[in-house]
Amino acid sequence: xxxxxxxxxxxxxGLYDRAVSAIKDAGLELFELSGIEPNPRIGSVRKGxxxxxxxxxxxxxxxxxxxxxxxxxxxxxxxxxxxxxxILTLAATGSEMDTxxxxxxxETNDKIGRLDPNMLPKASFLDPSIxxxxxxxxxxxxxxxxxxxxxxxxxxxxxxxxxxxxxxEGLMKTVIRFAPIAMRxxxxxxxxxxxxxxxxxxxxxxxxxxxxxAWSCHPMxxxxxxxxxxxxxxxxxILTPRWMExxxxxxxxxxxxxxxxxxxxxxxxxxxxxxxxxxxxxxSDFLFNTLQLKRTFPxxxxxxxxxxxxxxxxxxxxxxxxxxxxxQADVEKIFEMCMK
Length: 340
Ligand code: NZQ
Ligand code: ZN
Known about the structure:
This protein is α/β, with parallel strands linked by helices. It folds into two domains: 2-126, Rossmann fold (3-Layer(aba) Sandwich), CATH 3.40.50; 135-337, Dehydroquinate synthase-like - alpha domain (Dehydroquinate synthase-like, alpha domain, Up-down Bundle). Helices cover 51% and strands 9% of the residues. It contains 13 helices and seven strands. The protein has helices spanning 9-12, 15-25, 42-54, 66-75, 136-154, 162-184, 189-203, 217-228, 232-247, 253-264, 272-290, 307-315, 328-337; strands at 2-5, 31-33, 60-64, 84-88, 100-105, 110-115, 123-125. Helix 9 packs antiparallel against helix 11 (272-290) and helix 12 packs across helix 13. The N and C termini lie far apart (49 Å). The structure holds 5,6-dihydroxy-NADP (NZQ) and zinc ion. Zinc ion binds at residues 93, 145, 148-149, 218, 232.
């Protein structure tokens, strides 16, 4: 077995010792690869692949957050993937229950996602108490990420299943209710458990209702973390309210009304555009005041230098489908909105 982990948080919280003794008790031969970076890098993946070959590894155990799990997924050769097991330590990406992985190459400023059913973990252990040690900042970023996974699917003008919209609204309300509690009281089991379960269900495919959905904020954010190595959830938090403002028009306003009234309890008798603006304001208040995340690009060290190239890479040189189809110029305008 090859056990992979990040920069050492699992040692501090005692999880490393527990995992190693369980593996040894089971009589398994253990190899280790540590130091997987947040925004995991291709170099770590290559090291893992090398170890799998050298030691004839037959199962991979990822102990960590999305970065460790993602890097481990890519190590498992795709044609005939090695089985992946994960012990999740951070509620955010849903990597523990999905088929995706995202890897960065700092030399080329690329951050590329891959989807493959072979990468779905065979088993994932979700113990909320393991997330007691997650910092308030990472809790906030993880919560912003979970919300974004829901928004990417929820904000569409397709006639989708009412049941799925209610389910997503319930998950959004869960995050909005419990993220601040988990930040204030890191060892609140109920808060950690609800966030952990929400992270998996937001992105495990259920809310798609069997359809393939085009995402918008994630492709934009992956360019930010590719160029500036910022935390994924933080980038999403800055982009999301601006993207919502940019997509708001007469043809889309009804979705904002549904979101604002059902998730934030805004008065449904107000004019639709007022409800929409209030909904975006309430979301911003949650992200930037309650979760205390930074609000603008300059605050996180992003300036206009790479706007054009990041926007071009976001849309792949053409039009990116989604809630509102976006071209390079649109993405540049959304980036510009994040400057203040
Ligand atoms: O490296 P260690 O020491 O473990 O510390 C980590 C890291 O510094 C720390 N941490 C994790 N669990 C902890 C803890 N600290 C204390 N106690 C614990 N229990 O938190 C930091 C961030 O960890 P990371 O794994 O990078 O965070 P996250 O889970 O948010 O993963 C982010 C990565 O996942 C990708 C992102 O783009 C980013 O690269 N995503 C993966 C997705 C997927 N597979 O479906 C979808 C997402 O949209 C996202 O793109
Ligand atoms: Zn995400």
